Amino acid sequence: MINKTKGVRACTLAALFLTSASFAAPAAAEGEVNIYSYRQPFLIEPLLNAFTKETGIETNVIFADKGLGERIKAEGANSPADVLLTVDIGRLDGAKEMGITQPVTSDVIEANIPAEYRDPDGHWIGLTTRARVIYASKDRVEQDTITYEELADEKWRGRICTRSGQHVYSIGLFASVVAHEGAEATEEWLAGVRDNLASKPSGNDRAQVKSIYAGECDISLGNTYYMGKMLTNEKEPEQKDWANSVKILFPNAEGRGTHVNIAGVMMARHAPHPDAAKKLIEFLTSEEAQRIYADSNYEYPVKPGVPVSDLVASWGELTPDSLPLAEVAKNRKTASELVDKVGFNDGPSS
Ligand code: FE
């Protein structure tokens, strides 16, 4: 929980207000910035402390795991929200489509963040990346390279585990395949992958690794940072066993690169403190912040030259697909339709 100064004020909604000052009085000076965050407090607290230390600007955070976009929309012109922090291109672009964001132009941001990780109109800015990789059984999978394409190969029959094909993480990957290969080839590929599934898609990324550990499948699709979350999980130490039973393979490392998605930030359309908000966003793209933010969740910094943590580096080298995330966003709808068309979530047909 983030509690910058004078205490916690709980709110009746799903979210929690944690604020020191007049959160409901948008006319206040530029000395504060109001953050709506889908990212957990522990991930952003160190960053916000560093920001306040550097700029003197106080931060107020509302954290929730759903409904913040709808809330900003409902609050309209009176919304106290200055910035929104979230993960996945689907959610970032979705917020832009909802009309709750405004473009940010900044030389600092443009210098720090490569164009493929920013909205061309400036509505969303990527801050960290995560790769959608293959978790493979150390015991039962010998190969150390893989491609997304070969997941449709017969040799994987009955050996693949994955979460729902309609989850935003899956859709991001499938949309990148549509962008590279076209809809027809993607449909064929998805049908092939479906037939190689060990069972109907269910559970989250970590549950698939648990299934590998249990011998129910040999490979799974998952985001990189879950390896870090499992390896360091003191609350559920059995997750360390799941993680230690697998290795990470970075698909298409030799070719177009591995699909990456982003965690990012947006400025709210009616931000009451736009100058402070811009300062915060610029700060989040700085080397100092990139390092803290990426390390806190075992992600990759987007600013070129900022090193990854030792643990993340130990999984191997990431060569990211350079396809702009805006192209991924454009193909999300097609990807989602194809998932339904091939009955991906029904599991293998035979
Ligand atoms: Fe996640």
3D structure, described in words:
By secondary structure, this protein is an alpha+beta fold. It folds into two domains: 7-128 and 260-307, D-Maltodextrin-Binding Protein, domain 2; 132-257 and 316-346, Periplasmic binding protein-like II (D-Maltodextrin-Binding Protein, domain 2). 37% of the residues lie in helices and 16% in strands. Strands 1, 2, 3, 4, 5, 6, 7, 8, 9, 10 and 11 form an eleven-stranded mixed beta sheet that branches. Strand 2 (32-37), helix 1 (41-55) and strand 3 (58-63) form a beta-alpha-beta unit. Helix 1 packs antiparallel against helix 11, helix 5 (168-181) crosses helix 14 and helix 6 crosses helix 14 (332-341). The longest helix has 15 residues, at 41-55. It is globular. The relative contact order is 0.19. Mean pLDDT is 92; it is low at 1-29. The structure holds fe (iii) ion.
What descriptors fit this protein?
350 residues; alpha+beta; D-Maltodextrin-Binding Protein, domain 2; 2 domains; 11-stranded mixed β-sheet; 14 helices; 11 strands; disordered N terminus; binds fe (iii) ion
List the helices and strands and how they pair.
Layout: E1 16-18, E2 32-37, H1 41-55, E3 58-63, H2 68-75, E4 83-87, H3 89-98, E5 101-102, H4 107-112, E6 125-137, E7 160-161, H5 168-181, H6 183-196, H7 205-213, E8 219-223, H8 225-231, H9 238-244, E9 246-249, E10 260-268, H10 274-284, H11 287-296, E11 300-301, H12 310-313, H13 325-330, H14 332-341
Parallel strand pairs: 2-3, 2-4, 7-8
Antiparallel strand pairs: 1-3, 4-10, 5-10, 6-8, 6-9, 6-10, 6-11
Helix pairs in contact: 1-11, 5-6, 5-14, 6-14, 7-9
This protein binds fe (iii) ion.
